[in-house]
Amino acid sequence: MSHTAHIPSHRKPRRSASRVALRAGVAGGVLSTIAVAGAAGPANAEPVTETIEMPTLTSGLAGSIAQSADATQQVAFTLELRAQEDAAATKAAEIAKKAKAEAQRKAEAKKKAEEAARAEAAATERASRSAARTTLAAVSTSSGSDSGSSSASASVSQATGSAAAVLAFVQAQLGDAYVMGSTGPNAWDCSGLVQAAYRQIGVDLPRVSGDQSTAGTQVSLSNLQPGDILYWGGAGSAYHTGIYVGGGQFIGAQNPSTGVVQKSLDWDPPSGAVRVL
């Protein structure tokens, strides 16, 4: 006996030919019955048809497309409007910048013109004072060092510009009374008269003698010019002031007994002088 005689086989058992023939016969019979039934029906029967209505999707899609188009158009309109606003703002800024530059240019031109006018006026004034002082010096030299009030009057008549105005003012006050603390128009003290004379030409001097003695540039008594302020006492602590009118003469409100007088420097020699003009 072989070793495999008792081991069962794992193969599927073969179907018998009779079972296969039986199943084939049954299937064929069924198919034949269906064929006969079909042939037995009416020859002219119409085929059965049925319409199935599919849901319409285009209406909702069209609405969505329309909304999208509107939104796109609105965005385009907004962007165009913003571009126009930006362009307008840029143009306005350029116009403002040009206007500002033009205003600055005009302001600078005006400033330069004013500075030039002031410089020209100052130069004219300096030339006028220089000419007046030269004329007064010439008159003083030809008239002598102490020729009295007539020499001073000649100096005043020849003077021009601011110095001439100062000298004319103090000469017009000759004979007025001296009153302590008075500033005119018919009575003066020494510093009140000096202050008023310079105020006529737009120069504001301090009120008291001590301050007036340092209000300008200190000058030597040997180099005096008409219009210089003379002072008696120390610079900054002077007790009396007057105005040099040329020809070795000065005018001042001296005291209650003399009033406003014109005298020679030798009559009451001053301590010093300051030049304002």
Could you give a quick summary of the protein structure above?
The protein is of the alpha+beta class.
Structure description:
- It is rod-shaped and about 125 Å long.
- It has a six-stranded antiparallel sheet with strand order 3-8-4-5-6-7. Strands 1-2 form a two-stranded parallel ribbon.
- It has 277 residues and is α+β, with helices and mostly antiparallel strands.
- It has a single domain, classed as endopeptidase domain like (from Nostoc punctiforme) (endopeptidase fold (from Nostoc punctiforme)), CATH 3.90.1720.
- Helix 3 packs across helix 4 and helix 4 packs across helix 5.
- The chain has six helices and eight strands.
- 53% of the residues lie in helices and 13% in strands.
Shape by Cα distribution: rod-shaped
The proportion of residues in beta strands is: 5-15%
From the 3D structure, determine the CATH topology: endopeptidase fold (from Nostoc punctiforme)
Strand order of the largest sheet: 3-8-4-5-6-7
CATH class: Alpha Beta
